[in-house]
Design a protein that fits this description.
Structural class: mainly beta
Strand order of the largest sheet: 2-1-3
Strand content: 15-25%
Radius of gyration: 17 Å
Order of helices and strands: HEEEEE
Oligomer: single chain
């Protein structure tokens, strides 16, 4: 039996409403990138960088865990925050996999199913 001062591990897990972070961006060539981070896994590869290096006035100031943000670009597709890495941010409690169908270019969403992503077909994400 284990005793805890404060929250036990199950309380921490239950307190995380939206476990998965999804960030979407395009590079200068128009290539689409989507990052998925599992907040319970931890580790270096699960770290989310919201703002790239730059002056403070170009940073996105309102990042908050669990709050979706889909307004990082205006109607002319200009970035509202110069340093914001992901102009579209979504949180979800489900493990969702997105991929582009190579036959017709449709963006496909899979919930709790695996998908083997093709290797070496795009530019480096970061």
């Amino acid at each position: 039996m284990s005793y805890y001062v404060g929250n036990n591990p199950q309380d921490v897990v239950n307190g995380i409403i939206k476990r998965y972070f999804y960030g979407m961006r395009r590079n200068d060539d128009g290539e689409l990138f989507l990052v998925r981070s599992d907040q319970l896994q931890g580790g270096e590869e699960q770290t989310v960088t919201v703002n790239d290096l730059g002056t403070a006035d170009g940073n996105f100031p309102d990042f908050e865990e669990g709050i979706d943000f889909l307004d990082g670009i205006d109607e002319d597709h200009n970035f509202l925050y110069e340093n914001l890495r992901y102009p579209q941010i979504k949180w979800d409690g489900r493990s969702i996999l997105y991929y582009v169908d190579p036959t017709d270019g449709q963006l496909i969403l899979r919930i709790s199913e695996g998908y083997e992503y093709p290797q070496n077909i795009s530019a480096e994400g970061y």
